[in-house]
Amino acid sequence: MARVFVITGPSGVGKGTLIRRLRAAVPELRLSVSATTRAPRAGEQDGRDYWFLDEETFHRKVEDGEFVEHAEYAGRRYGTLRSELERHLAAGAPVVLEIEVQGAQQIRGTMPEAVQVFVAPPSFDVLRERLAGRGTDDPEVIERRLDVARGELRQQEQFDHLLVNDDLDATTERLVGIVREQLATATAG
């Protein structure tokens, strides 16, 4: 039985880095590439990092029921394409989703068997420093992301697992442990 792992948390908390490390440690895990209306950042590629869609195309796909979840975050839209998720599940591969908290809540309703992991920063100040340190967003976008993060952090107790990303190696180890345990349980059951 394939498993679905949802990794969520505020922007800038390190979800992408953790997932890259997780996939290196658990190579059978497939990444469901999300769609977004935001512009690609330097070095990002369509279909590898995100499916970059214009607003009209994204809206049409929402209307046509092509997303298993979608959300607006800091003025941009994000979502998981049903075709992307089903492609991996049909092959029997476990799948990891890197999604926003709103989307994770939708997945909880539609796929209650999905294992949900919330990644939190060690403090709000550290989150602010990480967002500013990326150098990818102007100060107004950073403030919008921080406003959203305040609400997201209040919801962290709703998730199956909570990881505070205070030490990248230790947090990666805990995440790998959660995934391996769940995969072993799925295989044994």
TrEMBL record:
ATP binds at G9, P10, S11, G12, V13, G14, K15, G16. SUPFAM superfamilies: P-loop containing nucleoside triphosphate hydrolases. GO terms for molecular function: GMP kinase activity. CDD domains: GMPK (cd00071). It is found in: Cytoplasm. The keyword tRNA-binding does not apply. Keywords: ATP-binding, Cytoplasm, Kinase, Nucleotide-binding, Transferase. Residues 2-180 form the Guanylate kinase-like domain. The keyword Nucleotide-binding applies. Its EC number is 2.7.4.8. It catalyses: GMP + ATP = GDP + ADP. It is an enzyme of class 2 (transferase). Pfam families: Guanylate_kin. Belongs to the guanylate kinase family. HAMAP family: Guanylate_kinase (MF_00328). Essential for recycling GMP and indirectly, cGMP. This is Guanylate kinase. It comes from Patulibacter brassicae.
